[in-house]
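User: Hey, my collaborator sent me this sequence without any context and asked if I could get a structure. I don't really work with proteins. Can you help?
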Amino acid sequence: MTLIFTDPFIDLYPNPVRDFAPPPSSLDVPSLVLSPAAGSLDSDPAPSAPSESPTDICRSTQVRAPPSHLTDYHCYFALFTLHEPHTYREASTNPLWQQAMTDELDALHKTHTWDMTTLPPGKSAVGCKWVYKIKTRADGSVERYKAHLVARGFTQEYGINYEETFAPVARLISVRSLLAVAIIRHWLLFQMDVKNAFLNGDLLEEVYIQPPPDYPNSQNQVCRFRHALYGLKQAPRAWFAKFSSVVAQQGFTPSSYDSALFICHTSTGITLILLYVDDMIITGDDIAGIRDLPKFLSQHFEMKDRDTLSYFLGLEVTSSFDGYYLSQAKYSFDLLFKAGFTDSKTVSTPLELNVKLNPTDVLRILRYIKGTLFHGLHFSAQSSLELHAYADADWAGDPPDRRSTTGYYFLLGSSLISWRSKKQSVVARSSTEVEYRALADATSELLWLRWLLTDMGAPQTTSTPIHCDNRSAIHIAHNDVFHERTKHIEIDCHFIRHHLQQSALHLLSVSSEDQLADVFTKFYPPRRLCDLVSKLKMASSSPPCV
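Assistant: No problem. I've predicted the 3D structure and written it out in C-alpha cell form, which is a compact way to encode the shape of the chain:
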C-alpha cells in the first residue's frame, strides 16, 4: 500500500542520514583565511580603490581552529541529534519517513489487520495518528527510521471495546540474572526482535478505527480490526498471548516466577527466551535448539536477523577479556542532553554531606552521572553461581519524617544482579526494628531469586547467606523471643524464622565497616563511596568509538 503524499511543502530535512564519524580535528577544518576580495564577514565592504593605484588590505594569515570542546565526544554526539517529526504533515515531506510509513502500511496489509467497512449504527470509531521514532545503536548511529500507526486508545471505553489489558514484560532483575548465568556458564547470547509485533495479536473485541490520512478509497469508510494495533489498550495483552501460544508449539513453557521467561528442556540441553514486548534475549546450552529457533519464529512472525547481544533495553553489553560489561552510557547521555547538563562540571558524590537538602539538589545527581558516564557492572566469566546478599537500614535517617531507609543487594558470585534502596513506610522506634524490616524485605527478594535462578538452570543447592551488621536483629531471627519492642513486627519475625528453619537462608554478622549495603542507605565522602562502589564490581568501561 502506497500513500499519496499531497503536501506541497518542500523537504524540511534534505539530508537526514547522518552517519557518525570521528569528531573533527583542527586539521580537518578548512582554512578561514579570507582573500582580499572576500571582505570581512562582520564589517562593511572596503571602498573600492582607484584602479590606477590599488591598495592591498592586510589580512591575518592565522588558521582559525574550532574550540577544543568541539572535539569532545559528548558535544559531537549532541550536535548530531536527529530530528523526529511530530506531525504527519511534517513527516510527509521527507522521503525516509515516507518510506517508513509505506512499510508500516504494507505490514498492516500483510497481516490483514483490518477490513474496510461502513460504521454500524450505534458504534464509534477510534481515531489514529502516526508516531515517528529513529532507532539508534549503542554508539548513537542510525539503525532505522520507524513509523507506527497508533490508535488513540484513550478514547476506548471499558466493557465496550476492551476489557483485560495487562501483559507481563521481563524485569530488569531477570535480564541481569540471565546475563550473569549465561556469562558464567559460557553460553552464547543472542538477541532478536519482532517487526510490527502488535499486529500479530488476535483481537476478540469489535473495534473500529478511522482510516489514516491520505489512505486511498477510504471516503465514508472505517477500518474494523481483525488484529491488534499499537495504541489499543488490549494490544500488549493480545500480542503476548499470541507469542506464548506460538512458542508453546516448540516446547517452551513460561516460568512461574517471571512470565516473560520461556524455558525449553530437551535431551540436548536448555534454551531460554526472555521477552520484553518485541525484543528478546536467546541463550542456553542447547546449540541445536538455539540454531533452529530463529527459523521457527520466522515462520510465524516477521523477524529481524539474529545477532550477538550488544544492546538491550538501554543496556550496552560489551565483551572483555574475562567477561562482559553492562553499562548505560547512551541512555545516561540522552538524559543529560535533555536536561541541558552536557557541559556541566562533574562531582565525585551524588549528594553533599551534612547539608540541608532542597529540591534542586537532585540536579547534582546529573553532574555525578556525567562523571561516571562510562561506568558499568562487570560480570566475570570466572565467577561462581552462588547467591549471597547484604542487607542494611539507616535508622531515622530522613529528618522531615524520621522514617528509615532499607537497602540491600544480591550478588551471583561476583556479579551484581539485584539491589534496592527504599524508604520504609512506618516510623521505627529502634535500630533493631528497621534492620529487621530490611532483613524481611531481603528475604522476600531472596526467595524469588532462588526460584528464578532454578528456572534459569542455576539452582541454589545450599542456603543463601545474608550479611547483617545488627546483632540484635540476628538474635531475634534465631530465637523465639518476643517482647513489647518487637511484637508489632511478629509477622516479619515468623517469616524470616520459617525460612531459616527451611535452610533457604542463613544470617551472618558483619561489621559496619564491611557492610557493603551501606551505599544504598547513607551518604559518604568520595573516598569511602569509591571503595564501596568498587566492591560492587562497578568499573569504567571503554567509551564507544564514534
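In plain terms: Confidence is low (pLDDT under 50) at residues 7-54. You can pass these C-alpha cells on to your collaborator as they are.
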